[in-house]
Amino acid sequence: MIDLRSQLQAALGERYEALREIGRGGTAVVFLAHDRRHHRAVALKVLRPEVAAAIGAERFLREIRIVAGLQHPHILPLHDSGEAPSGAPGVGLLYYVMPFVEGESLRHRLNREGRLPLDAALQIAREVASALDFAHANGVIHRDVKPENVLLYGGHAVVADFGVAHAVEPADGGTRTAAGIVLGTPAYMSPEQAAGEAVLDGRSDLYSLGCVVYEMLAGVPPFVGTAARELMARHALEPPPPLRAARPDAPGAVEYGVARALAKDPSDRVSTGAEFVALLSGRGRAPAPARTAPRMWVAAVAAVAAVAAGAGLWRWHTAGGEPPPAASGSIAVMPFSVSGTDSLGLRSGMVNLLSTKLDGAGDLRTVDPRALLGYLGPDAGGTLDPERAGRVAERFGAGLYVLGDLFELGGRLRLSASLYDAHRGTAPIAKASAEGETGRVFELVDSVAAQLLGRWGGKESQFTAIAAVTTGSLPALKAYLEGESAFRGGRFDQAVDAFQRAVAEDSSFALAWYRMSVAAEWLTRSDVTVEAAEHAARHADRLSEHDRQLLRAFRAARRGAGAEAERLYRDITAAYPSDVEAWFQLAETIFHFGPLRGRPAADSREAWERVLYFEPNFFAPMVHLARIAALEGRREAVDSIVRRIAALRGRSADTTATVRSESLELETLRAFVVGDSTAEAEALARLEDASDVTLALSTWAVASYGRRTDGAMRIARELAAPTRAPSSRIIGRQLAGNLLSSAGHLQAARREAEALAADDSFGAAASAAL
Question: Which of 47, 137, 581, 684 could form a cystine bridge with 52, CB 3.0-4.6 A?
Answer without folding.
Answer: 47
